[in-house]
Amino acid sequence: MALEHALLVSLSEQDASGYDLTRRFDKSIGFFHSATHQQIYRVLKRMDEAGWVEVEAIAQDGRPDKKMYRVSDAGRAELTRWIAEPSEPNHLRNELAIKIRAAAHADLPALRREVARHRDGHAARLDVYRLIEKRDFPNPAALSGSSLHQYLVLRGGIRVEEGFTDWCQEVLDALPTGEYATEDTGEYATEDTGEPATEDTGEPATEDTGEYATEGHLQS
């Protein structure tokens, strides 16, 4: 998807200035299609040259005129054409998944910290999406038109973040703790704590303390 189409979608919902569009990308559309402020202004200029938008200059006291953009008939035709165009399913490219697959060669505590960092990041974005859902769509059953379409996209974002958060937690639950991979074999070895191992005498524990009794304590 080109940035032009994301901007056409936003402008089809409401006319906006370039500044308004940058704020929308920061708060909503940007969750699904990122763009810098410079990119947005540069693409708006191209859209104006292509005739996809109409521009109205609005005078401001002591400030340069503000440009308000609205979708033209040609822009709506392009939006309709693009929506009908087949889109290929996104193929997941996840660097963290490759690292987890190589866990046999990893410093496991460091890998666990990385997985936890990703889990927390997805959980934080999930919290944002749920707050938006609660604030903007308190009664989903009553939605229609553009509001319904926005809600459905938000629900998609919620499902994605739920999935990644749960998956990261599943990985953390499954990975061993306090271990590292040996360089030669890739097999897990228990981390050396630096404390001497206690010799197992095989003698019974005393009734009161649960500690192993010495031979002298068992003599009458």
Automatic annotation (TrEMBL):
<feature type="domain" description="Transcription regulator PadR C-terminal">
    <location>
        <begin position="92"/>
        <end position="175"/>
    </location>
</feature>
<dbReference type="Pfam" id="PF10400">
    <property type="entry name" value="Vir_act_alpha_C"/>
</dbReference>
<dbReference type="InterPro" id="IPR036390">
    <property type="entry name" value="WH_DNA-bd_sf"/>
</dbReference>
<protein>
    <submittedName>
        <fullName>PadR family transcriptional regulator</fullName>
    </submittedName>
</protein>
<dbReference type="InterPro" id="IPR018309">
    <property type="entry name" value="Tscrpt_reg_PadR_C"/>
</dbReference>
<dbReference type="Pfam" id="PF03551">
    <property type="entry name" value="PadR"/>
</dbReference>
<feature type="region of interest" description="Disordered">
    <location>
        <begin position="179"/>
        <end position="220"/>
    </location>
</feature>
<feature type="compositionally biased region" description="Acidic residues">
    <location>
        <begin position="181"/>
        <end position="210"/>
    </location>
</feature>
<dbReference type="InterPro" id="IPR036388">
    <property type="entry name" value="WH-like_DNA-bd_sf"/>
</dbReference>
<feature type="domain" description="Transcription regulator PadR N-terminal">
    <location>
        <begin position="7"/>
        <end position="80"/>
    </location>
</feature>
<dbReference type="InterPro" id="IPR005149">
    <property type="entry name" value="Tscrpt_reg_PadR_N"/>
</dbReference>
